[in-house]
Write a structure and sequence with these properties.
It is a single chain. By secondary structure, the chain is mainly alpha-helical. It contains five helices and no strands. The longest helix has 56 residues. It is elongated, with a radius of gyration of 28 Å.
Length: 168
């Protein structure tokens, strides 16, 4: 009923809308920057994975600990890349997982081979333990082989501890 009050209300809403509009623009800009950061991490991981595959084909022994460390660093950068919307995150997350699996493939293959070798060492330890006379030199040599294997290929700490307990 009071036109002057409605006019003041409308002006207040327009003033508030300007603040909200600038905030929304800032949020959109940050989301675009975070999306770009995540895409950059994905592309960097993809390039790193290709470089690692070609390097591992050329060299016979790879530094699996360094590769594992770098993969963890990529994962940390992915987590710290900032907030994006749910739909964008779902889209980027599938790309991230695919690229991460491709990059971690050689490491996972090396870990599977290491687990197989460690299981063979466990069997050798069982055979040595079931022998009539315990040969200390053979036990020490077996432990040295275990240590060399454990230092060459990193495994998940729980899995490695479980294998070590079985070996011991």
């Amino acid at each position: 009923p009071n036109h002057a009050l409605w006019k003041r209300f409308d002006e207040a809403c327009n003033t508030a809308h300007k603040v909200v509009e600038s905030w929304l623009e800032k949020v959109r800009q940050e989301a675009a920057e975070h999306r770009a950061q995540r895409l950059a991490v994905i592309e960097e991981l993809r390039a790193w994975g290709v470089a690692q595959r070609t390097a591992s084909e050329q060299a016979s022994a790879a530094d699996w600990k360094a590769i594992n460390r770098e993969l963890h660093q990529f994962s940390d950068r992915w987590r710290e890349a900032g907030h994006v919307g749910e739909k964008v995150f779902a889209e980027l997350q599938t790309q991230w997982r695919t690229v991460l699996q491709e990059a971690a493939g050689p490491l996972e293959a090396a870990q599977a081979a290491s687990i197989a070798r460690r299981n063979l060492l466990i069997e050798e330890a069982r055979v040595l333990g079931s022998a009539q006379a315990l040969r200390v030199d053979a036990v020490k040599a077996l432990q040295a082989r275990w240590q060399a294997e454990a230092q060459s290929v990193p495994l998940d700490r729980r899995a490695e501890q479980k294998l070590w307990d079985t070996f011991r």
